Structures are given as structure tokens and as C-alpha cells.
Fold each of these.
Amino acid sequence: MIALRILLIAAAACGLALAQQTAPQPIVLQNATIHTVTKGTFSGSIVIRNGMIAEVGDKVLAPMGAKIIDLSGKHITPGLIDCHTHIALVSTNEGSVSVSSMVAMRDVIDPEDPAIFRDLAGGTTTANLLHGSANAIGGLNVVIKMRWGSDADGLVMKEAKPGIKFALGENPKRAGQGAQSPFGGNAQTPRYPGTRMGVEDVIREAFLEARQYQASWKDYETRRARGENVLAPRRNMKLDPLVEVLEGKRLVHAHCYRADEILMLLRVAEEFGFKIATLQHALEGYKVAKEIKAHGAGVSTFSDWWSYKIEAYDAIPYNAALLTKKGVLTSLNSDDAGGADVSTRLNTEAAKTIKYGGLSADEALALVTINPARQLGIDQYVGSIEAGKQADIVVYDKDPLSIYSKVEKVFIDGRQYFDRDEDLLARPRREADKKGLLEKEKAAEKADAPQKRRPS
Amino acid sequence: MKQLLLASLFAVVAFAAAPEGGSFLLKNVTVHPVSGPKLDGASVLVLDGKIAEVGAKVTPPKTKIRIIDGKGLHVWPGMINSGSMVGLSEIGSIRETNDTGELGTFVPQLRPIVALNPDSEHIPVVRANGITMTALLPAGAGGGGRGGGNVQMIGGQISLAHLAGWTWEEMEVRRSAGMHLRYPAISPVSFDPMTFSTTRGNYPNSKRQHDQEIQELTSFFDDARSYWTAKKAALPVKTDLKFEALIPVLEGKTPLIAFASHEREIREVIEFADKQQVKLVLAGVRKPGAALETIAKKKIPVILGRTQTGVDEEDDPYDEPYALPAKLYAAGVKFCFATFDAEFARNLPYQASQGVPYGLPYDEALRAVTLNAAEIWGIDKEYGSIEAGKVADLVLTDGDLLEVKTDVKMVFIRGNEADLETRHTRLYKKYLARP
Amino acid sequence: MVHRLFPLTLLLLAAAALLTADPPSRVAIRDARVYTVSGPVLEKATVLIKDGLIEAVGENVPIPVGVTVIDGTGLNVYPGLIDALSTWGIAELAAPVPPAGGARGGAQPAPAIPAPATPATPQQPQPRARGPEDRPNTFTWVKAADLVKPSDRRIETARSAGFTTAVTFPRQGILAGHGAVINLAGENGGDMVVDPAVGLYTTLTTGGFANFPGSLMGAMAYLRQIWIDAAYYRAAKEAYAKDPVAIVRPSYDRALEGLLETHRLLIPAFSRVQIERMLRFGAEFKTPFVLYGGQEAFRTADQLKKAGVPVILNVKWPAKERESDPEEIPSLRTLQLRDKAPTTPAVLAAAGVPFAISSEGLDTPKDMLKALKKSIDVGLKPADAIRALTLSAAEIYGVASRLGSIDKGKIANLTVVKGDLFDEKSKVEMVFIDGKKYLPAPEAPAPPRPTGATPAGEAQ
């Protein structure tokens, strides 16, 4: 009996030890200036446990065995969220057709894109990977977290609500204008549409088709319930997502510039009984802030880009501030493609709205944290520093809205994915690795080189 | 007699073209002279467009002039964007609105100042962020430009212009302050906009093309030199505007502004400039590598492009563009900044301050967009710092000129207050007021 | 009524038969080292061939009278080597095309990995596809078995290098058609075919912006849709057969017909990211699939093992281009790939992932052996290399009961080598295909060296 008891105790002890090994160590981020975004800014600490923010406050209770990181003098923000980007993707556009809702960015994630790491080093922890703007109706999006080192599946933020890309304005009609277009189509076979009116037509036709498709399935289900021998309609991967839009299950993120096309899309959506989730870029959004607010759409825009296209000629850097003042849920995005650029500096992009439009520090930070989180339907998980949210946290050495600040550490789901000091140490190691491999190759080349023979 | 009359007429006209400078006394400001330490609670006296006096106590002027109470604000020298297409390029994607990138491989005779549109919407926009002067580029870093021309090697001269004036004549600071050169690079990497991916091309072909272009460039210089020699020898030569334009370069008076971004072409263009015995300024340097030492040793100035960009190569450290200015500073290289475009020209100051957290001392960042730029363009006797005798290009802010959040309150060009109203502020006010 | 000339005709026919006498139908190779692959190596054994099949193999096999005997002393006998992903036999696909290094037209652009060499085919101008319904670039009805001819000159070169079999596929299109296992000898194409349909070759090539699909994700979406369409087509046909009155007659679609015949897919995947992507994607079709390419598979052996997916390896190991920029430093990823790619076969063997070898991208069939030698130098067991060239290939394509090892009852395909198979100095003495002996083609004599002056370019 005693032997059995000893055995049981031993087993329990082993189990406990194992549990402690597999459960991640809690972390306390101590004594920093915390920009919660939603609950003010104050000096305090954060407890991270099991990937979540367990506690935030000016004083916290440090759990047993927690790793304490002293961050005196540093600043903490929620992980920044980029609502519109094309990094980490092998394809950006399925530009051959005007409606490409059958394609999915999830299929073409490139988890080894260095841009992921660079975004991370810039404080961006979550991003909305969108189809490009070549088509009036584009493909399905995927929201990822910058969990550098994971495979494609490991990057996907599974809690995100599914979305789809639309595009209005110059880009989706460029292929309809023949030979000049870098977006394909050619003089012989331009791709419809070539005008903004045509863009509206493409969208309405697509949703009409989707409605008919939806009806055919409802009809089939009704008949089958009645016991009829009917063939189910053929599944159409292009129309399935559009039906999801009609049913409110898929968010529409629509690239647009001009006020008239913004209005057009809001009315088309209303005609078919759905809402536009976000108007992306919407550089003239400030002109129709009232209508956007009434419809209930959000806007995700640039900080200060303008004049590169005629439809960007009325763009103003006050766009985000004005929309915010008019009550529209607004965010800032990078639209990065071919490499990480603006997405590595979302904090200073946000700071521009203090200068252009007089937003407060929290309002500015919200543009790249809680606002895009709301727009993507993930605000219960990320976007602010609150107990119960996922521990996506950025540590800056100075005020995050200052150009003089640097990212020092980044946590995603409570795990540290970036540390500037470690990155600095890793650089000479990588260089040494490269040098070693180059020398190895050179040596092998020499060994392989054929012996030179003199003629007899 | 007639000739004398004509000459004096031209002189009068030329004098009349220079706009009148303004006068005012700016009190109660923190002055950042750049050429010296900052002065709190100081004043700046501007007379007829020139800085007359700077200091804690300033001699009150004899005549009645405007007195501006700075209310504890900060005053800085107006910033200089050392390379933009402001006023030359209105909308990037519309060719008709662009006047850079002419046809022809060697077009040194072109002066962008004459194509400067004084009513371009870009000018007030850029000026409103404290930039008072820009170097005008006739072509881009890769040659070409938005004019739709082919890829030039010598795209034209570089003019310096104030960002205020009724005509380009009034705006002109220097008609020809430099000569554009795109130094040929062997760059087999090409970017495919269809898939946003880079592909390695054919090195032998690129090398061949590179070598051929170098040969053409050398021949062109040789021809220009022959022309110059003939002229000096008073031999009868038919005037050739192209070769005429190169003479100041050959004389060492006008620098070659050579776009060379990577180590190899930097190395090569330095050798070229040495051989041709011309003054050299490097532009668009990104990865100087081992050539940095040579740049420093030969005291070649550098015009840096935007630090706020993406990283070039896969293995580059993530902060490489941010750390570049500090690298140059540590090596003892003098540099200034340019944005090389129109639409982001207003963000010039942040290209400098972005380098500060990565090692660039703040004072150097400020100097880079003011006095260094003036020195590199050879106009530092008149511009680049707040010192008596210099032209009154001044910026008044509520904080650090190089910080993003800062508001620019007033801008003076030649002592005249510039209008800070822009297309953007007008649209903002209009739609803010929409019921 | 028998014609007057009948006996004469008979005589003439008999004479003709004698003159074109068939090679001996019974052959024995004696006292050779025999690599059965299915079992241990037999140091001194005999292989008996009868009527195109292996009649017996062993150390003590009695040789019957009247059998042609070949002295195998000092020779190594292997099962006939198999090129597991080939175009041999389809002469139109012989023209080599430099690997598509770029994004345009390439399947899955990845800077570190060279794209597979896709041989150029005379492309018929395609009408612009508007979507999956136009079946763009689809050739599922095309069968390699219909296209192979013994007149392809590469067949002899392959035999001379020791190959007896190839799994040959048509190459044009996203869905290029069905491959066949063929022996590299025969009087006509039909004779060569061992199995006429062993897999559907997919390429996921894209048409840029001009044509659907213009992107990798478009190609993937297309495959999904056409799979759905094929299943629907089958259901519609069945329903129609049961009730031709109530059900609308389904429209005949040869693309879907060809798809329905598919019982194995070949999907391209070179890099780790591509392999992981295609493992996920391939599983959606609920059809056995094989990945081809696999040069970064050394990083994904566990995933491949878990998924139970075999790999046809492209063994043109990535290397520095001959004429590359001397000042260019490749990325760390590229250097690592170049360094580690040749270890892939050993890594896969250790993990228990079935793999075979392809001639894809190589200049000559001999280069396959050279490439494997490189892998052997970095740890691949020679026995595993031999297996990859023989039994594994047969198993992957479901023809292991007929080919791949030296066992009684299997087709008599043998490769006889003087020296070790992977030794550069070895010589292929002969191969047997369907029991018939073939000698290697004589090598072209080397051009005489010029006497006197040093040829230009030679280092002093």
C-alpha cells in the first residue's frame, strides 16, 4: 500500500513538473508607460499568462515563477495592426478577369517573406493580407499575425472574420483601356470594364448572379426536403463568397478613391442588402463622411499620400482626422507590396494625424490599433492593452508617436518574437554563416575544376 | 552706344526680376541657427530680405517695420530639399503633367527651372512643412522621369528654386547648380509588377550594356573636351549647346550630380570623375559598402534619398536605410537629403530625423537639411543658417522642426511671409464645414 | 481452294522470318553481382530470362540447355533504371528550354529556387479564357501513351546510360494530360507502354494578366473548380442515365472526362513553402498525389512522411550560374539551399519518405547518376540511391508487380554495368528491355587535339 502511495505521489510530481514545462512561463512587463489606447495611458505593469494579458495596472500581482522584465523608462503599446497590405504573398492579383472571388490569399501565403520580420521589427503584429486592386471584385483575404518562424498555417489568425476585396476607380478599369495598361488586357482584348460606370455594372451583375445562385440552392433544399429527386446545383467557387457577403458572413474591404465611387458602392451594397465593412484608401472619403457614417462603413486610409494618380489629386493628409471627427471608424494602412515599407512605421504615420487635423495621441494610436481591430472583427482579441486580450505587445524606447523612438521588443500571443538586441547580435553570426558557405562553395569549385592539359 | 543701352536695359530687367525682400522683427523666439548653438529668448531682425541681426538683444530698426511676437516658438533656417520634381511633375501617372525625363541619352543643355510651374499645387504643400528651397531634377535616379522619355545618362542641369514667387524668374536661386548624371549600373535584378517579385536577369547582357554605356559616356565627355579646347584656342567652332553646357563641368565649376546607389557604380563613377577631373557629388547612395572609405577620403559630398523606405536585399538588416546616415556621419562624409519626387517632398525633415534613433546625432540631422545642403550646392554664403548677412529663409514652429507632430506656424522666403494655405487646407476647411 | 502460289508464299515468309530472326528468347547472365533491390545483394548469381520475363534469379540457378549465356564475371546487374518523370518517347518535347527564372509564365516564383525546365511545346494560340468555365490550358484528354514513338532519339541515349524505363508525361498546360510507364524499346509506341495512365501531370503555370488563370492562386482556384465540375458531371451523368426524362442531358466535356480517369496527380513543389502549400492543397482532391521537384524537401521530410506523399526529385542541384555577377553575394537562403539540396535523398530515405529520380532539367541521362553520386558523397546510402532509380519509382506509380526489382515473374529489364553504377569511370555494358538485349551506342570519337600552339583560353 505504501509503495502504491509513493508511486502515486511520484506520478503526480512528474505530472506537475511536466505541466510546468509545457505551460509557457508567465511574464511581467514592469514599470513602463503603458498606452492602453482604450483605457488611458499610465505608468504600470502587465502580466502575461498563457498568451493572454492577464492583468494591467499601475500595480500588479506577479505570478510565481514569472519572468520579470524591467521596462523603466520604456513605452508599451498594443501590437500595431495594418489593415491593408500585400506582403507575405506569392501572388497579389488575379487580374485576368474582373471578378476573381474564387481565389484566396490563404493559398499563396509566403511565410518566409522577410517582410514579415521587418513588420515585426516595426511593431506591426497583425495584418490584413488583401488581393490587389486589379479587379472590381477580387479574391478572399487572410488576416495573419507576424509569428515569424511559423509556417503558413501558423501565421493565420483564425479568429478573424473572413473578408473579400473589391476595387473601384482607376485600377480595375485600367485593363479595359487597352494597350497602355500595365495591368494587362491588350489592344486586341481589353477587359471590361473601362469606366467607373462599368465597374458598378460588374459589381451589380456579379451580385445578381450570386442572388440567382443563392436562390437555386434554396430551391434545391426546399425540393429535397419535399422528397423530390433533384440534382443539387453545381458549386460555384466564384459565387459562394458573394453569397456569404449577401448573408453578412463575409466582410467587404473595398479599395476606392473618389467620393462618387464611394457613394456608388454604398448604394449598390444597400441595393443588395449588405454593408461595406471598410472603404480602403478612400482618399476622398472626407467629402462623403456623412454618407459613410450613415451606412456604417469604416475607412482605412493613407496618412499623407497624394497626387500620384488623378484620383488622388484631392487627397488630403487631414482625411483620417476629418473622418474621425465626423464619427467614422478610421484606420491607417500601408498598402505595402514587394517588400515591407510603410508597414514598418505605422506609429509615425499615425503621428501625422496629430499634425494634420489635431487628433489626440490616443486617437492617433487608435488608428493603427483598436480601430483596425474593430474593422477586421478582431477587437475582442487584439487592438488594446486590456486584461483578457491576446498579449500582442510592443515595447518602444521612447514615446511611440515620436520619430525618435525605436521598437525594442515585440510579443505576440505572449511569446517574444522580436528583440532588437538579439537581432543586433545575430547579424555577425549570419554574416559568418554566409561567409562560411561561400568559402565552402569556392573550395568545391576549385576541386571540381578540370585539370588543364597541355597539348602533346 | 546702342550696345551699352541694351546692356543696361538687360541689367535693369535682371534686377527687376529679383523680388523685393521683406522686413520684420521677430521677437521672443528660440533661434536654431545651425551654424551655432541655439539661443533661447532671442530675436531675429530681417531687413530687405536679409537677416540683419540675431541675438538676445537686437538693435531696433530705424524705419517702422512689422513686429512679430514669436511667443516662445522656434525659428529655424528654411529647409532645402536637395532633389525633387516639385513644380515639374504634377500627377505622377499622367504624362502631360510631367516635365522630367526628356528624350535623348545626353541632354545636358536642359534647364528645369524654365519648366517650373509657379502655381503647381505641390509648391505650397511642400512649403507649408518648412521647406523653402528645392533642387529641381530634370530626370530621375534611374534616368527617365515622368515625361515618358527614354532613360537618359545625362538628363540636364539641376536648378535651385525658392518655393515662392510669381514667376520662375522670381523663384530662381541658381539656374544651373549641378549636372545630372545617371551612372550606368550593372543591375540584372528586375522587378516584375505583375507578381511584385524580383528576378535575376542575365549578367553577361547587363555587363555588355553597361560597358557600352560607359563607352558612350566617355566619348561624349571626350567630344565636349575637344570642343572646349577648340574654343579656348579661339578656333572657329559651331556653337553646340550640349557641349557648351558641359564646359562649366569640365572647368570644375559645376559639379556632376551622379546617381550611383551601390558600391560598384560608386567606385566606378569616382574613378570616372577623377579621370575627367570634374567635381563630383554622389546622389541616391544606398549601399556604399567598401566605397564609403573612398567617398570619405576624397571628401565627396552625398545627397541621400529617403531613409523612410524599404530594405533592398533579403539579408539586409531591417534598419539598414535608417542607419545609413549615421554610417556616413561616422565615416566623416558630408551629406544632405532629397526625396527625388514630388508627392513626398514635404516629408524631407523626417528622412533626417529617422536616422537619429539609429545613430545620427540630432544636430547632424538638422544640419543635413539646412547648412550641409547649402554648402553642397555652393550657396552657403547666402543660405542654410540663421546668421547676419544671409537670406531670410526662415521657418517658425511650435516645436522640433524634425518631429512629425510639430506644426509649422510661419514660413518666410526672402523675408516675405509665405502663404501656408494649400490645396489640402482648403479642401479640409471646406469639408469640415459641410453640414 | 488453295492458290498455286501458296506454298511459295509460305516459303518466302519462312525465309523472311529466318532472316529477321528474333533474338534468343532465353538468356542467362551468370556469375554476376546482382542487385535484386527487393532483397539482399547476391555476390555471384545468375539471372535467367525467358520470353521477356525474369524466370529465375539466385546464387544456384541451374542454366538449361539451349540458353544463350552471358558471362557476368566482374559485372554488376541492376534492375532496369527508371526515369520517374520524363518526356522520353515524346520527340516533340525534346527541345530543352532554359529554366524559367522569372515570374512571368513561371509556376511559383521563389527567388532561391530555380523553376523546373519546362520543355517548349508548339503552343496553339489559345482564345482568351474568361474563367474556369473556359477550361483554360487544359489537356486532360491527352495521353502520353498515344504520343510515344520509338523514333525519339533520346531513347537510345537513355538506354546507353543504363535506363530501361521512363514514366513519360505530356507537358503543355495547367492540366497537361496523363503519363505512361514506357519501356525504352519497341517496334511501335504501343509496344513500349507498360501502363498507359499512371498519373495526371499538373503544372500550375499562369498566363500573367492576359489569360485566366493569371496567378498561382488563380491556378489553384481553377483546379478546385474543375474538380467540383468533374464530380458534378459524374453525378449528372449518373442521374441522367437513371432518368433521362426528368434530368437535363449533361453536355459532353472531354476535359472532365479526362479528369474523371485520374487516379493519381502530380503536383509541382520545390521549396519548403511550396511543398507545405501543395501538401495542404493536394489533400483537398482526395486523390493520391505525388509531389515533383522537391529540392528543399530536406526541410520538410516529417510533413511528407506524415502526409504519406512520395516525391519525384529534380536532381539538377541548384548551383551558382556559370556567368553570374562576380560582385553579387547570394542570399543566405540561396546558399543554404545550394549547400543542402544534395542531402535531400538521404534525408528522405532516413525519414521513410518514398522518392524517385527525374531527368528533368538535366542535359543527359548520365547526369542523373552524377547527381546521385553527389548525394552519396554527402550521406545517401548507395542502396537507397539504387532503390530510388528502380523499385521506389515502380511503387510510386503502382507498377511494382511488373518492374523495379530482379524477381521471378517481373519484366526482364536489367542494367548491366562494368563497375559501380555511380562511379563515373564505369561503363554500361548492356541493358535488357522486355528480355531483349541492347548495347550502348558507340561514343563519338573525340576530335583530334591541335598540335603546337596552346588553344586560346587555356590557363598557363
Note: Chain C touches chain A through 55 residues (CB under 8 Å).
Amino acid sequence: MSRIRLMVCAAGFGLLLSVPAGVLAQAAPQTAAQMPTGAVSHIGNLTGHPDAGRRQYLRYCVGCHGQDGDGTGENAQWIEPKPRDFTAAVFKCRSTPTGTLPTDEDLFHSVSRGFVTTNMPPWAPLPAQARADVVAYIKAFSPRWQSEQPGTPISVPAETPVTTASILHGRELFQKMECWKCHGPAGHGDGPSASTLTDSKDNPIRPYNFSTGSRFKCGVTNADLYRIFMTGVDGTPMPSFADNLKPEEAWDLVHFLRTLQPIQSPEATLWHAWLPAHAGELRPIGPDAAGQ
Amino acid sequence: MHTNLLPLLAVAALGAGVTAALPTGHAVAGTISGTITFTGTPPKMRPIDMAKEPTCAAQHATPVMNENVVTGTGNTIKNVVVYISAGDHPGAPPTTAVRYDQKGCEYLPHVAVMQAGQPLEIYNDDKTSHNIHPLAKLNPEWNKSQPPGSPPLNATYAKPEFIPVKCNIHPWMHGYFAVMATPHYAISDADGKFTISGLAPGTYTVTAWHERFGTQSQQVTVPASGGATSDFAYKVTPY
């Protein structure tokens, strides 16, 4: 082959290699989702667009969440828990009541924060605009967004002071609301019902074990914890207690739950200082005298 | 008069005929009744071990059986929902609520049939908490805790769907909400018998649904007076 021909071939080959992955990905089969016009996302000052979001999705998300957004990407078979199925429009981490759609901010926070203890990483290193775009694209996988507005975010009133009385009341609520039946008396995820729990797709699932650290799947702050049990973790056995707890009671429960974690929170510090002199006064958490 | 009265008379007669055919509650008495039976060997139901919930175990002198398949003498099947799936006039949902009880760690009734948009009231009659987790796919899926002594939970389903219901705390609890588009439906009793009433004369598609054995349909004609019969037979296997 002549030198010029060789150079032209090499240049052509080099050009082919340099084609961005996005272009190649767009040659892939179309997704099943039909993009409704105007299905943008609004997060703060950002407006996310599904067309731009699609490029992000095909680069970062499709491997787990799948071409059709149904959680059947090629990685899905090897990971536990399974990736979210966006076509079902059921989401774990919301500020909105159980059974309602999350807000765009909820989805943005989930993407940014990731889900600790799962294969969903924090995508915070991506620019905020990219994350806003991908939120818009994710919404296109379920027709539910076309006919329904997100739920009204629950009001999270100002946190009540962290006191021993608050923690003690929270402990009573942990007993009375029967959290221990799944989460176990010390919150180790070993309650009597823990071993039989399945999620809404019939996959086995374990309740949160408070002794594993300081973070939850749906956040890190006390307000995040408040929202978890006041909106429920949809798609899982964790119900909403919004109908059963008044806001002050909910804060008491938050304060107690913090004492179950191996961290030096204000709640834990206060509790562990109080406990040695008073432990004998406490009734153990678990089945009461009636066996219930 | 030059006006031809014949077309006017024809229209008037047609109008009167149409009016007569429209269902008016008290004037319509057609029924479809039948019996649901099976051939073959159905799956065996097993007793439920409620040892993990002593307050519920104590309510049952003998352990209750799994209710996935409930059969009766003469090879009949209970809890089959029979409904008009075509040929019907839709109706506004009733305003009276359908009641669903959690009692003795069981769902009563096992299958609650309601019309789309009809109110549903869920009661916890037990000394233990339950969580109500209807696993809807067409309707929103929600999950709420209901401690003992709570007021009833209110819910409504807008779309027709057969929704499995479970309690995550008590994994043996299984039930269904059968949300109907039609106002004409029934559920087979312990003898496998059902009656759908309030039907105008005409031809309908009647569908039977069972949680394990699936769906079957038939065309049934309700005569001008009296009722029609529609029996269903399922071929079943033990597994």
C-alpha cells in the first residue's frame, strides 16, 4: 500500500476512534419512552431538559437502570438491591406522602446523594445542570407524570430540643409503634419479622440496621430521618407513620433513633450520660407481658 | 297540512323505545347467576403458623388455613370475582364504603370487591400493629402503618385493577382488592355460587377471576324477563 494511502487509512481509523461515545450510543435502539414535550424538571434556578438528560443517562445510568428505565440494565443481574425501575414510578426517598410522586428536588437529591449501602453512587461530582437534565429524562419513563402532579411535600416543623425526656418518649414510641418488630429491640435489623421481609417486587430485603453507621438511604440529617418514617420508603416494607405520629412525637422518635447509632450525636451523648444511673428503670423493648 | 307527520311519529316512537331500554334501577331485574367449579386436583392449603404473633394465634382455636384456594363440596371454588367486562353501562360509584378488616391477623374478606372511585375503609381489630401495603401497579402503591386503636384508614382506587394486599409485619397475610369498572359484579360464596343483579336485557361478556386460577370469559344473554345462568369451570393442577 502506498504511504499516502496508509496515512489516509490511519487518519480515518483515528477519526473513528475519536467519535464520542454519545454519538455511538444514539445509534443504539430507541428507548420505549416517548418524550412528552415540555417535560422539563425544575430544581431551584435550574431547568433540566430530557434531551440533554438522555445523553447523560446513556453515559452513566443505562448500565444498571436499563435502556427502558425498568431496572434491567446489564449490571442489574449481579447487584443487590436491584436498580430502581423508573417505569413503576415508585420511589424510596421523597418529601411527599406515601403513594404520591416525588418532587423534582427529591429526585435531584437522590441522584446527587446516591443510596448508601447500594450500588447507586453519589453523582454529586457531575455538574448540577447535568443532574437536573437526567431527572427530566427519568420522569419520561413513566406516564404517571403526564397525568399526575407530585405530592405536596410534608411539612417538617422546627425540631424540638434534644432532651432526655424527648429521647425517653421516643423510646416509648419505638415500642408502641412496634418498630422493633422489623428493626429489632436495639435497631440491629433483627426483629421477629425481619427475616421474612420482601420488597414490592418480591425480592428479599432487610430492615435498616441502626448500628451500621450514621447515614440512611434517604439522607443524613435529623430532618431526613423525620421524612423517612413520615413518608414511608415506598416500594419497601417500611410504611408511613404520618397518620400515627404528631410532629412533636416524630421529633422524639428521631432523637431516640439517633441513640441507636454508633456516633457521637448530641442525642447519643446525652443518652449515654443519663443511662448508667437509670438503666434499671427502663422496660426492655420487645414483646410486652401480654406477649404482644 | 303539507308536513309529513310520519318521520315525526317515527322519531317519537324511537325516542320512547330508547327511553324504555335505558336501565332505571327499579324497572330492571335481570340477573346472571351460576356456580364456579373445578376439575382436576387443586393445590393443598396449609395451616398458618402465627407463633410470631401470639395475640393473633390466641384468637384461633385451630390454626387458620391459607386462603389462596378455598374449595367447597362438589368441587366448587370460593372467592371468584365474576363481573361484566363488556356490554355494560358504566355507573357512578356507590358512596357507601366497602369495609376491610384485619382481624386475627387475617384479612376479612379475603377479596374485597369495590367499584373504581368507591370509598374503602380499613380497620385494625387486632392488638398488634399492621401495615397495609396494597401492591397496586396501575393505581398508586402506598404503605401505611395502622397501630391498634387507630381510626379506620380511608382509601379510594380510581382505576380498575386486581390489587394484592399484604402486611409486611405478618408475612402470611394475603388479600386482594378487586377494583371494578362496572357496577355489576359478584363474588362466589362458600358453595361457589354467585348472582349478579340489576342487569338490563341484552348480551354481556361475563368474566370470572381467581387469584390462582386466572381469568375466563363467556358471552351471556339476559332475557327480557327472568335470569340467565353462567357457570364457570376451571381445570386445576396441584402446583
Note: The radius of gyration of chain B is 22 Å.
